[in-house]
């Protein structure tokens, strides 16, 4: 019996990257997973990328779960509300909500001060990163709290500890990623009376489809990218954070993490899961102790 058999998850923003990795691993654990996004086989978002929600749903089903693709723009309250009504009608429950909508890789201008950064792009980034999560939680949580032990996972970039001490390359990006961590803390407070849990989870340096394309490699030969960027040696696959979320979802004592900010690497040490290559990359410790410290790239002791 798989640990998440009979459970229902919504991964909001599952077209690619972390969302896809999380959806697959929830499926591998036996869950029914609704995967949402804007890009389908007949329509692309402004990303203009080939990955689709239908592909993600098929990967979920192939992993052992049931994947259900639904095209949703999470900035549109009517579309989100219709999604939750559909989940309620079809399943009668919602056990896990993973807010991973991002969609702003091409909007941030790195190391550009706010007075020079495009205001239009910056505000759009904030809407995609923050408003989508709030809108989705607004409509999804009344269904989730009907049962005890519901779990909300807010996916961000960086732990609270790291982000508190480091400027994240752009005021808009910094604000977006820090806000999502705070959102998990707020949701933890609001969900506690209902015996439900909210956690902020960050992957490390993740080998998303976009990141692999940036370095001109594929998952199978990702280490070739270390010639161009040696610190890429600490990178992890999207399935690693997927296994982190699946571990949380299957933990009957997940409430111990309520309101916390944790990384995939930290959760791997607690739950004993591994990345696809059998390693346990601890990216955020590596960033502080090796990369930010100006030391040569060397992942020994960090994966």
UniProtKB/TrEMBL annotation:
InterPro entries: NAD(P)-bd_dom_sf, SDR_fam. It comes from the Bacteria. Pfam families: adh_short. Coiled coil: none annotated. NCBIfam families: PRK08303.1 (NF006159). This is SDR family oxidoreductase. It comes from Paenibacillus gyeongsangnamensis.
């Amino acid at each position: 019996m798989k640990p998440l058999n009979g459970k229902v998850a919504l991964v909001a923003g599952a077209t690619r990257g972390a969302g896809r990795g999380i959806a697959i691993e929830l499926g591998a654990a036996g869950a029914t997973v609704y995967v949402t996004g804007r890009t389908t086989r007949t329509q692309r978002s402004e990303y203009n990328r080939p990955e689709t929600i239908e592909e993600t749903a098929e990967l979920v089903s192939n992993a052992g779960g049931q994947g259900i693709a639904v095209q949703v723009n999470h900035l549109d309250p009517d579309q989100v509300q219709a999604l939750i009504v559909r989940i309620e009608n079809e399943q009668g429950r919602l056990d896990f909500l993973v807010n991973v909508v991002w969609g702003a890789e091409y909007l941030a201008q790195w190391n550009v001060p706010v007075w020079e950064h495009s205001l239009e792009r910056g505000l759009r980034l904030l809407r995609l990163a923050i408003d989508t999560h709030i809108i989705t939680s607004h409509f999804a949580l009344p269904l989730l709290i009907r049962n005890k032990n519901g779990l909300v996972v807010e996916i961000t970039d960086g732990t609270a500890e790291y982000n508190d001490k480091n400027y994240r390359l752009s005021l808009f990006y910094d604000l977006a990623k820090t806000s999502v961590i705070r959102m998990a803390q707020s949701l933890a407070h609001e969900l506690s009376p209902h015996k439900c849990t909210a956690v902020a989870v960050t992957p490390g340096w993740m080998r998303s489809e976009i990141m692999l394309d940036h370095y001109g490699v594929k998952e199978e030969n990702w280490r070739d990218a270390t010639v161009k960027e040696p610190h890429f040696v600490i990178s992890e696959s999207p399935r690693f954070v997927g296994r982190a979320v699946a571990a949380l979802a299957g933990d009957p004592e997940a409430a111990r993490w309520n309101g916390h900010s944790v990384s995939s690497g930290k959760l791997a040490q607690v739950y004993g899961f591994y990345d696809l290559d059998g390693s346990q990359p601890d990216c955020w410790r590596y960033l502080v102790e090796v990369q930010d410290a100006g030391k040569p790239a060397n992942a020994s002791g960090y994966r």
